Every structure is written in C-alpha cells, then in structure tokens.
Amino acid sequence: MELKYKKLHPDAFLKDASMPGDAGRDISFVSAELDKHGNICYYTGIAIELPEFQQPFTVFAAGLMKSSGSKHSLILANAMGVIDFGYRGEIIFKFKPVLSFDSDGEISFKPKRKFKKGEAVGQLIVMLALDVKPVKVDKLSSTERESKGYGQASGNE
To answer: Could you say which of 3.30.40.10, 3.10.20.740, 3.40.50.300, 2.70.40.10 is the CATH number of the domain covering 4-130?
Structure first.
C-alpha cells in the first residue's frame, strides 16, 4: 500500500522501512523552535495523504518517538501525535524536556542532547481504527472486571 507524501522543504525526508515488516517510517526535521508553552517544535517539512478505507474503518497515522530518542531527555508533549485522515498540513513533533541530573547531582530541565538537523526525530506508523458513532445509553452490559482499573483487575494494586 502506498503512503503519499509531499516535501514542503527540500531537506525533508520520510524513509521507507529499514527492514521488511518494520511498522515505523523514520521522519526527519528541517527546523525547530520553542513555542509559547515551552514545547520544542520540530518541523518535518512533510505532509501526507493517508489511504482511504471503507467504513467501518478509518485510517490515521501516529507520530511516535523513536527508541533512540531516550538519549535526548525529551518526551513527546502529547505522548503520541495523531494525524487524522483529512489533515494535509506539515507534520510537527512537539517535545517537552524531562527532568535530568548533571554530574554534580543538579536538577535540570535542559535536554542532554538536541536532535541534529536532518536526524530522524520520530516515526510515523499508519493504523486502522474503527469509525464509531458515540451512542448514549442508560446502562452498559456487565463484565467480570466492571470498573476495576489501574492494576485492580489483576490484583496488583
């Protein structure tokens, strides 16, 4: 299946899979800036057009951090960026610095290492989702689990 993309900047790239069966496609960034909320915004210079599916399915892309991103002391500001089917704008990865300690034990919120221009800042993964319509009801069906959450269902409270 094809994923159509448009380069909005000559240095932008969206890689094909590194190995057969890999889910993620590396995406680089072409510029970065700090927004008014303290996020480090990495602009990829890439826009995509997702393939169309028939209902009850829809398709979206997820912007995820690469595992090598742990070297940067950054986390994605929204944990996972969702790129909806109809979005045709530039893909932007927003990161927040995480708490780190320097060699003297001092606390810092500065990234240990910034991404280098042209380096893959994240991965795109294209996924299917059910296209559902919320329907308000007065009662839900019963289950063994019911409302147990946060480890309660497995007894790991």
So the answer is: 2.70.40.10
pTM: predicted TM-score of the whole model, two decimal places:
0.77
In total, the chain counts a number of residues equal to 157
Which residues does 112 contact at the CB level (< 8 Å), separation at least 6?
Answer: 71, 72, 73, 100
CA distance 91 to 9: 12
Note the Cα 105 to chain centre separation in Å: 31
15 alpha carbon, distance to own chain's centre: 16
pLDDT above 90: percentage of residues in the chain: 43
pLDDT band at 110 (very low <50, low <70, confident <90, very high): low
Contact status, residue 51 vs residue 59, Cβ threshold 8 Å: yes
Q: How confident is the model at residue 155 (pLDDT cuts 50, 70, 90)?
A: low
Residue 15: how many other CB atoms lie within 10 Å: 14
Alpha carbons 118 and 99: distance in angstroms, whole number: 25
In the numeric block, the tokens 């289950």 are attached to: 143
Instruction: Give the integer Cα–Cα distance in Å for 63 and 94.
Output: 10
Integer Cα distance of 82 and 115 in angstroms: 21
